[in-house]
Amino acid sequence: MKSRMQDGWAKKRDSLLSTAAVVACLALTAWFAPAAAQEFPTRPIKFVVPFPPGSGTDATARYYANELSKLTSHPVVVENKPGGSGFIAASSVLNGPADGHTVLIGSTSTLATNVALFRTLPYDPVKDFAPLSMLMGSTVILLVPQNSPHKGITDLINDAQKRPGALNYAAGAASYQLMSEWFNEMAHIKTTHVPYKGAPDAARAVMSGEVDFTLVDTTTGLSALQGGKVRALAVASNQRLKNLPEVPTAVESGLRDFITYTWVGAAVPANTPQPVAAKLTAWIAQIAERPRTREFLEKTGMEVMPIGPAEFRKFQQENIVLWKRVAQSANIEPQ
Predict the structure, then answer these.
(1) DSSP string, 55-85
(2) Sign (positive/negative) of CA torsion 2, 141, 247, 302?
């Protein structure tokens, strides 16, 4: 049975909530806001990213920071705080003033899958943060070595079914491990997890033939495919990607429910004044509406996801439920 998250992603490609309506409503909220909110910002806005420069999250943060700076004629800087599974970045945002000047540019792991993978967190991604807007989504690609005997996803599944545990997969982060275990569940197979420090490292492991396959975000996948040492068997989407029109979807290949992706969203501490948060959301919505934003993201295989606070919260909670279930089903012990 499809989760609401899966159905939601399929629909969001064609009919996301009206960005123009979001802009209008939030602009009206800001108009009637207290004086303090109307004066916001009073100092540079800081986007805190849980990953190092060069990641998809970082690229997204830098694009939106640059656009927001131009929109508001106010400095917006990006601060990378990698490590600690996102704990360092999230904690630094929560430890600062809750006045809207510090924004967490969180990801699938920071705002969802960490709940499924850790017994205790130094923060609660739902209670401690107020979502502003989703910024982008990136479909996941299944890669195999160029010389792999598996010419299609069906070949991979049939081989894995005949040899339980013999095939292995590279996971560049805990989120990718969960996605891979969900793939195992959907395909009724058992494959062996091999951890790597990041999606690029996982892709390189496939290039060298160290592992049989990996699931990576589109940005990493497209970069790896340019080298000619890997092949894409499928995209975990309900429709083919513009960048890879020849690669079938997992849905086409028989895994009709395997739709998954990485995503990036902006959030502020939960006790941030609502009018200030609304002002930030309205600005982000304006940026998301611009054609050049879509063009920028599509170049690297990402997509605009202009989802406002309420829908973002629902989406986040559904992600958490899904990944907790997958972790339990795969017998992944919380750290």
Answers:
(1) SHHHHHHHHHHHHHHHHHTS-EEEEE---GG
(2) positive
Mean residue pLDDT across the chain: 88
CATH of the domain at 181: 3.40.190.10
Helix (H, G, I), strand (E, B) or coil at 193: strand
pTM above the 0.70 mark?
yes
**Cβ atoms < 10 Å from Cβ of 54:** 12
pLDDT in tens, 3-61: 444 455 545 544 444 444 454 455 445 444 555 567 899 999 999 999 888 777 888 99
* Whether residue 314 is found in the same domain as residue 290: yes
Same domain, 127 and 41: yes
Report the greatest alpha carbon distance in the chain.
67
Instruction: Look at the chain and report how many structural domains it folds into.
Output: 2
User: Do 304 and 291 touch, CB atoms closer than 8 A?
Assistant: no
Q: What is the pLDDT of residue 19?
A: 47
Q: How many CB atoms lie within 10 A of CB 48?
A: 22
State how far the alpha carbon of 230 is from the alpha carbons of 76, 151, 174, 226, 240, in Å: 38, 11, 22, 9, 18
Structural domain harbouring 219: 140-235
